[in-house]
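Notes from hallway chat w/ T.B., transcribed later so I don't forget. T.B. wanted the structure written out for a chain they're using in a teaching module, and asked if we could keep both sequence and structure tokens in one place. Agreed to drop them here.
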Amino acid sequence: MSDRYADEAVIRRILTDSKTWAFVGLRDNRERTAYDMAELLRSRGKTIVPVHPAAETVLGEPGFASVAEVPPVVDVVGVYRRAAHAGGAVDEAIELFGTYGPRGPGDVRAVWLPLEVVDEDAAKRAADAGLDVVMNRCPAIEWARLRLPR
């Protein structure tokens, strides 16, 4: 696998300029990576939107059953599902961002696939739709590596 979807400038911009992250696969389960990453990004000032068929409230934020139900305020869709299921969530993210209209200055519209969630076809579809894509990277590791402020 290449590092095509690991551009440092894109990662830095997503982590610093984004305000709201939808976490696909996020449940109220502290044992899961999605919960850890949502909690970390929330501690860094991000708003978290849980997305899971159970539509649970997580970290005090109301959940949604699918990306298609998420209000159009999201900057990043993080896909914390197995790679075999990532494509559908990415396609929903493409649809969601397609409803936003033209990009304005400073708009972040991105899909983030974490470590071991690799779907080259889905990543290409998102990039072809004009979204920024990060794949096979961990927000916590990248935050530390880039020495971003806490």
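Follow-up for T.B.: The longest strand covers residues 20-24. Might be a good example for the class.
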